[in-house]
Design a protein that fits this description.
With about 575 residues, this protein is an alpha/beta fold. It has two domains: about 300 residues, ABC transporter transmembrane region fold; about 240 residues, Rossmann fold (3-Layer(aba) Sandwich), CATH 3.40.50. The chain is built from 15 helices and twelve strands. Strand 9, helix 14 and strand 10 form a beta-alpha-beta unit.
Length: about 575
């Protein structure tokens, strides 16, 4: 029923009309077989009127079947599209910490195999609906020909379907186990692609990965899936056994009675052969139905929120350029291990930020620096305490508008190959200007908002991410270990030219950094240790701890001119 609701959600009238057409086609097809049976028993019926009605009947069968398939094909493709869009919106509406806990492999398995599994069954519905109609009409016709014989056949068929139901239930259990193991397989795929360098450099690790993890898990996956498919084949064979059992019983009755009406035997032979073909199509589709329901269960197991309303340009929240204060008030956030025990707790934190401030967040690995900036940007929601914006609490109702005030380049940033949201010619010209200033114009070009390549070194990729950050021009900039991987010249330029220039433009700049010899650039330094604030104080003056005066390297001259000022002076638009 859940699968049918996917189709009804798109168009109930169209689905109903297609279903009626399938039923008409099925009944007409069975009536066609009955007419053939009559003509074989009585050749004198082969008149011009018979041939005309026979031709019209063929047109009805083919026309209604084609109409049903065309309509249901459109509905199933629309359902596939809607599932992709809806699931993507639901996933993006999840809190970041929930997304991180689910993991990319499981989400990819849902978006690829599960959606495809559901859609494949929906694509088979036109054929299934036709054969269901054929089966129903054929049984009805057999009851009309001989009630007692049809009742005998129904009893045998009922026994066949009962056995099929039991065997199919076993198959479903194995297929469900295979689907759960598929998440592990996708995790191993992720390890193969993202950990290829490590696996290539360490042969013993590579052998352990394949022999202890990948090969056994793929073998168990294959075993469960194969067992499930074999159970389906056994179930299909059982239905054929029941069919032949009915034919055998029919022959026994003929032998016992000594004679049988030839017309009755002819009708039953033709219609039951036709019925067997339809039942075979239906039972062969049941494995697809099983895969689809298991896939739907896997999607529902994600416990995704209700689909958010489609966004439009009219609903886009603009940054608040008049802001005065952003604060974390008694904020705490905890990570849990697999047993749901608190493994790390950040906070409580009490921090207030203002425009035109340059703040460094420092501390050892695992001290909570990235978690702090994810809380500040609204990507993580506090477990206790609150975030305020100009004195107003940030809640679930306004957190979307709050996030629009931030531009962030995280250490695990994703680099899009399009200037999404900045496709206008004026933005493209400004982007080309920044590419030159970021020393990337010889590597990257922009055409119709599309970047020619993102296959760059890590340092260059970070500079390309900085391009989008400058185009966004938000009130608050967050950089998470941005300078890591940059050459010394560009690192110096970043700290001593770019960051002070953003501050001069009234931006709040929050920098997660380990570069202690640049702390003198900051207005304040916030140090975290084991999830707690060790200190939050003004940066050291030159000559004191945390501060050291250095001038920008002369080799960085092309970037000495502040980027925004240069863009306003030189870039068109």
């Amino acid at each position: 029923m859940k699968l049918i609701r996917l189709l009804l959600k798109n168009s109930r009238p169209a689905f109903t009309l297609a279903l009626v057409a399938s039923v008409v086609s099925g009944f007409a097809s069975t009536y066609l077989v009955a007419q053939i049976s009559r003509a074989l028993r009585a050749p004198e019926l082969l008149t011009a009127a018979f041939f005309l009605s026979f031709l019209l009947l063929i047109l009805v069968v083919l026309g209604t079947d084609l109409f049903s398939k065309l309509v249901l094909n459109r509905l199933t493709e629309a359902a596939y599209r809607d599932m992709q869009i809806t699931l993507s919106r639901q996933i993006l509406s999840l809190p970041i910490d929930r997304l991180e806990s689910i993991g990319a492999p499981r989400l990819l398995a849902v978006l690829t195999q599960d959606v495809a599994g559901v859609t494949y069954f929906l694509q088979r519905l036109p054929t299934v609906s036709f054969h269901v109609a054929v089966a129903v009409s054929a049984v009805a016709y057999l009851f009309w020909v001989s009630f007692s014989t049809a009742m005998l056949m129904s009893i045998v068929m009922a026994a066949g379907f009962a056995g099929y139901w039991v065997l199919n239930g076993r198959a479903r259990l194995h297929l469900r186990q295979a689907r759960q193991m598929n998440d592990h397989i996708f995790r191993r795929y992720e390890a193969i692609t993202l950990g290829a360098k490590e696996l290539k450099l360490h042969q013993r690790r590579r052998l352990s990965f394949f022999n202890r993890l990948f090969v056994p898990e793929t073998q168990r996956f294959m075993d469960e899936r194969l067992t499930g498919r074999n159970q389906h084949e056994v179930a299909n064979t059982w239905t054929n056994v029941m069919y032949f059992a009915f034919v055998l019983v029919l022959f026994i009755l003929v032998a016992v009675r000594g004679r049988v009406d030839p017309a009755l035997l002819t009708s039953f032979t033709l219609v039951t052969l036709y019925l067997r073909s339809s039942i075979s199509h239906i039972t062969n589709t049941i494995p697809n139905y099983t895969y689809a329901t298991v896939s739907l269960d896997a999607i529902e197991a994600l416990r995704l929120p209700a689909p958010p309303a489609p966004e439009t340009l009219a609903s886009v929240n603009e940054p608040d350029s008049t802001w005065q204060e952003a604060a974390l008030c008694g904020v705490t956030f905890a990570y849990s291990d697999e047993e749901s025990q608190a493994a790390f707790t950040l906070g409580p934190l009490d921090i207030t930020f203002h425009p035109g401030e340059l703040a460094f967040v420092i501390g050892g690995n695992g001290s909570g620096k990235t978690t702090l900036v994810k809380l500040l940007t609204g990507l993580y929601r506090p477990e206790e305490g609150k975030i305020t914006w100009n004195g107003l609490d940030v809640t679930d109702d306004n957190v979307e508008a709050y996030r629009q005030n931030f531009t962030a380049v995280f250490s695990d940033f994703y680099l899009f190959d399009d200037l999404l949201g900045f496709e206008t010619p004026s933005h493209e010209e400004r982007a080309a200007f920044y590419l030159d200033r970021l020393r990337l114009s010889h590597k990257v070009t922009i055409t119709n908002g599309h970047l020619s390549t993102t296959k760059l070194s890590q340092g260059q990729r970070k500079r390309l991410a900085l391009l989008t950050a400058y185009l966004e021009d938000r009130p608050i900039y967050v950089f998470d270990e941005w300078a890591a991987g940059q050459d010394p010249q560009f690192t110096d330029t970043f700290y001593r030219v770019m960051l002070p220039e953003l501050k001069q433009r009234g931006k709040l700049v929050v920098v997660v950094s380990h570069d202690d010899h640049y702390f003198d650039v900051a207005d304040r330094v916030i140090k975290l240790e084991y999830g707690q604030i060790e200190y939050d104080r003004d940066a050291g003056a030159p000559g004191r701890e945390g501060g050291q005066t250095r001038s920008a390297d002369s080799a960085a001259a092309p970037l000495v001119l502040p980027l925004a000022a240069a863009a306003e002076a030189q870039a068109p638009g």
